[in-house]
Design brief:
Elements: H1 3-34, H2 46-54, H3 59-68, E1 71-72, H4 73-79, H5 85-97, E2 101-104, E3 112-115, H6 117-120, H7 123-134, H8 148-158, H9 161-164, E4 169-175, E5 178-185, E6 188-193, E7 201-205, H10 208-214, H11 219-224, E8 228-232, H12 234-243
Parallel strand pairs: 4-7
Antiparallel strand pairs: 1-3, 2-3, 4-5, 5-6, 7-8
Length: 252
């Protein structure tokens, strides 16, 4: 065996040992977290294991907000105003120990929390859950709010790549005091917080935005009743309603 082949074999063995050690450590952490409060399910199943890590209250919403951007503890608390501070601390500690979140120290500022590679792997899961959950939305409850991060993820969740085709268009979306921007190109969408100077269409909408996405409100009807206001070509509002959709359960 050549020196190169020997080196590759050693690297592979070391990688396999490291992977086994990491898996054992993760299992130990999950077991430690679960044993005091009965969070383990006693089933050798991927869904059960995922729920042991992510099934606690607020955990997935923390992941949702970190999918938008890394955040400080204070920023997470502002984005989840109803979460008790001690619960948020517990969720961050658990998600960090199980390898979903990591802390990043900044040179002159507070600790920033961000998703690890494993945490970023939850993006498709969260988008699928959000897409399913959007079909359950009715009128907002009296105590419910919309946050910047929840709206960013809502637009990402409801985007339909097959409807976009080769469209290239930019939007600036106003939802009350929240301002977002969405750029569509090559069948993909990028959504971020903040205005977008020179956007092809500026769209102002409140809760009627949901009705526009479900098709309960047509673009023409939204404009005629002043439920939605735009600056730009009205045809781009039609495209918006085609590319961002909320489907009833069973729809596609």
């Amino acid at each position: 065996m050549s020196e190169v082949q020997s080196g590759v074999a050693v690297d592979r063995r070391e990688g396999a040992v490291a992977a086994v050690a990491a898996s054992a450590q993760r299992e130990a952490i999950i077991g430690e977290l679960g044993s005091p409060i009965g969070r383990t399910y006693g089933q050798y199943c991927g869904v059960a294991r995922a729920m042991e890590v992510l099934g606690e209250r607020w955990a997935l919403l923390v992941v949702r907000d970190l999918l938008v951007s890394a955040k400080t503890y204070a920023e997470l608390l502002r984005g989840l105003p109803r979460v008790p501070a001690d619960i948020l601390s517990s969720r961050l500690r658990e998600l960090t120990r199980t390898g979903v979140v990591r802390e990043r120290l900044t040179p002159a500022g507070p600790t920033v929390y961000e998703l690890t590679e494993a945490g970023l792997g939850l993006e498709d899961v969260l988008l699928t859950i959000g897409r399913w959950g959007a079909g359950l939305l009715d009128v907002p409850r009296s105590d419910e709010i919309v946050t910047v991060d929840s709206l960013v993820m809502a637009l990402r969740t409801t985007f339909v790549p097959s409807a976009a085709g080769d469209t290239r268009v930019t939007y600036e979306v106003h939802f009350g005091d929240i301002v977002l921007n969405a750029s569509v190109a090559d069948g993909a969408v990028r959504v971020a917080a903040g205005p977008l100077p020179g956007a092809d269409l500026v769209l102002e909408a409140g809760t009627s935005l949901k009705d526009l996405l479900t098709g309960d409100l047509t673009p023409a009807g939204a404009l005629a009743t002043d439920l939605v206001r735009i600056s730009g070509d009205p045809a781009l509002l039609d495209r918006f309603a085609e590319m961002f959709r909320i489907f009833p359960h069973g729809g596609s």
